[in-house]
Structure formats: structure tokens, C-alpha cells
Amino acid sequence: MSKKQAAPAFTKHQLVQSRQFSNREKDVLNAILAEETTYTVQQAKEQLTTFLKKEVI
What we know:
- The model has no long low-confidence stretch (mean pLDDT 92).
- Helix 2 crosses helix 3 (41-52).
- Helix content is 49%, strand content 0%.
- The longest helix has 12 residues, at 41-52.
- The chain is built from 3 helices and no strands.
- By secondary structure, the chain is mainly alpha-helical.
């Protein structure tokens, strides 16, 4: 039986400092992520995608 390991979670600051995201993506993440919450990289990417696909009014 194999156990699934939870993906590591990071703070907003850690994600914004990551090389995984472009400067543009870091700016958006800095604006949309909460300070007191931790996110996996996948969650951060999902938040980013959701934000960027919103309709502009």
C-alpha cells in the first residue's frame, strides 16, 4: 500500500520569490493571494488562471 504525500504548501511571499513564475505572473499572484494562507504550486496556478480568464468589464 502506498501513501500519497501531500504537496508542499508555500506562503504568498515564497511563491512570489519563486523562479517558477514569470514577473507578470508574480505581480498577479502578489495581488490575488492572501498573506496568511499557504498554497501549493498547483493551487497558485489555478488561482492565476482563474484570475486571468475573468471577463473585463
